[in-house]
Specification:
single chain; alpha+beta; Ubiquitin-like (UB roll); Fumarate Reductase Iron-sulfur Protein, Chain B, domain 2; 2 domains; 5-stranded mixed sheet; two-stranded antiparallel ribbon; 7 strands; 28% helix; electron transfer activity
Length: 343
């Protein structure tokens, strides 16, 4: 049997808004997202809400329910008493577009700034060999569904908008930790980069991000704290300290500080893998923004790849005989390859 429950839903846009009261029928086994859909169908068809899979795997229906960042599709109505008013508001950290939909492009900008995986030299695609024990520690971080609840609850940007340019947030700290712990990643200065360019020093490990993670990733204990410890170990290593006292700065940093001398831009593997000490000179390359500071529409329509392939322009991947040809190039197909092209 269903019951009528009271809801307060935030309605408005970037110019302002307010909470509106609704009386909605709730049936057994339903979640908050079901109630929002019923509201759209029966009382307020113009209520804006972002959602996709309704299975807790896409992270689209992020919202704040009674002040707690949660997924609408994973919050059961049975967790509230029948006389309790359920208040639904948009994510507070990000600008409101309309109603429960917020502009989370900040997170995608930080994703573009994070250095990508660097394949080891001399190892072709398909030749990678790893044991399960090699990836067990970082495999947990691959469960992230990018709901950005951790980004939303982090007080470094939730309460201080001015920190956003220098702070990447917990979602990208676990990305940096994942690559730093990856057995095949050739970049060995990721922890220094996280400290110098991602603002990891702003984090004071309150574990708010861990508490709201729907995938139960131990963001603080397994990613942020180990990365902080590695930075400290490197910074206060007595041998490193002695080397800084003896050697000149140019001898420590090498030529161009990890950058190609002619162009001044990062090229391929950098840091220790290139024989260069840790440096913050390798600056991020953010995407092109419009005059209003938002991503251009072309970033959504994908008229160009998000980032160049680390394996080059034209690569064949040995996967069950299927050949991959870059779409911008025309290449003659040999007779033995005719039957192996992907359909």
């Amino acid at each position: 049997m269903g019951s009528t429950r009271k809801f307060r839903v935030w309605r408005g846009d970037e110019n302002g808004g307010d909470l509106q009261d609704f009386q909605v029928e709730v049936n057994e086994g339903e979640v908050v997202l079901d109630v929002i859909h019923r509201l759209q169908a029966t009382q307020t068809p113009d209520l804006a809400c972002r959602w996709n899979c309704k299975a807790g795997k896409c992270g689209s229906c992020s919202m704040e329910i009674n002040g707690m960042p949660k997924l609408g599709c994973m919050t059961r109505m049975s967790t509230f008493t029948e006389d309790e008013t359920v208040t639904i508001t948009p994510l507070r950290t990000f600008p409101v577009i309309r109603d429960l939909v917020t502009d989370v492009s900040y997170n995608y900008e930080k994703a573009r700034e994070t250095p990508a995986f660097a394949p080891p030299a001399g190892v072709a695609p398909g030749d990678y060999r790893m044991q399960q024990v090699d990836v067990e520690r970082s495999q947990e971080f691959r469960k992230c569904i990018e709901c950005f609840l951790c980004q939303n609850t982090c007080h470094v940007v939730r309460d201080h908008e001015e920190n956003k340019p220098e702070f990447s947030g917990p979602r990208y700290f676990i990305r940096a930790a994942e690559l730093d712990m990856h057995p095949l990643d050739a970049k060995t200065d990721r922890k220094e980069y996280a400290q110098a360019s991602m603002g990891m020093g702003y984090c004071n490990i309150t574990k708010c991000c861990t508490e709201v993670c729907p995938e139960h990733i131990k963001i603080t204990d397994n990613a942020i704290i180990p990365m902080k410890e590695r930075v400290i170990d490197r910074k206060f290593d007595p041998l490193v300290w002695l080397g800084r006292k003896i050697l000149r700065r140019d001898q420590l940093n090498g030529q161009g500080q990890g950058l190609d001398a002619p162009s001044g831009k990062p090229a391929g593997v950098t840091g220790h893998a290139k024989g260069v000490g840790p440096t913050s000179a390798r600056l991020p390359e953010p995407p092109d923004l419009q005059e209003d500071g938002k991503l251009a529409l072309t970033e959504i329509t994908f008229d160009r790849p998000a980032a160049p392939s680390p394996f080059g322009e034209d690569v064949s991947f040995p996967m069950r005989g299927t050949s991959y040809v870059h779409p911008d190039r025309q290449r003659e197909t040999s007779p033995e390859d005719e039957g192996t092209q992907a359909h």
